[in-house]
Amino acid sequence: MRILVTGARGQLGTDLLAALSGEVPAGGLTDDPRTGRxxxxxxxxxxxxxxxxxxxxxxxxxxxxxxxxRPEVVIHGAAFTAVDACESDPDTAFAVNAxxxxxxxxxxxxxxxxxxxxxxxxxxxxxxxxxxxxxDRPCPLSVYGRSKYGGELELGPGDTIVRTSWVCGAHGxxxxxxxxxxxxxxxxxxxVDDQRGSPTFTADLAGAIAVLAxxxxxxxxxxxxxxxxxxxxxARAVLEAAGLDPARVEPIATSDxxxxxxxxxxxxxxxxxxxxxxxxxxxxxxxxxxLARLVTAxxxxxxxxxx
Length: 307
Hints:
Layout: E1 2-6, H1 11-20, E2 45-49, H2 59-69, E3 73-76, H3 83-88, H4 90-111, E4 114-120, H5 143-152, E5 160-164, E6 167-168, H6 175-182, E7 189-192, E8 196-197, E9 200-201, H7 202-214, E10 219-222, E11 229-230, H8 231-241, E12 249-252, H9 274-278, H10 287-298
């Protein structure tokens, strides 16, 4: 099966290429039904693309690439994900996250390819008292959330949307790496305790996306590691997994952030993986299990720093 992956050098894209090419992604993702972990059984003919070789906002370049490669599946993971930067540059946010998705959808239809689009928990406003279902109505608060929802609207009924959240992995910048870096400096670490969500780890997420894409499962799927936490609790868990003192982490309210963040965040962006569960597909492991694997890979010899 010929597959094209956009955003191939990002933290998710790197693990996607490994999963689709038959390698074992970071974290040891397998197809073992006893573990409930998803992976791929056969290697695919995978082409990864990213800037500068393909500017997905260039319609002609996108159509030419798809016509030349003629993939059977397109996994669209490229995005403008700098949430606060999107707030001050909405044109770029919508050009990359929404209009570029239109170009890829057009190209996929022209060559008969199945399109899978990676979306976000930020399409919701965070007011729900429970985790969001795939069938809940989006109501994004930020430019980033609106632009990603705009991308969702470009897909057809036979395509796939994978919404995920709080993404961390061995490649690229993420909260796990930020916490470990801050832990090497003296003083307390302050994280908000009034934003809750579902941490997701690319080693596991990549395998799930590989299955949904290669099986051409249509519709919207929420795919996260299991469990819900706050950023405060998550930061404590990172230190604990690294053998450091979690008591260094102090809770603060979002309203107390200094300086305040330009883009509003949903207070509750936890995603219920109902479509996976009801469809008989295994769920990803608990986020603490995935966190332990990632911290071991990133920081095998932690160093204690005094507060």
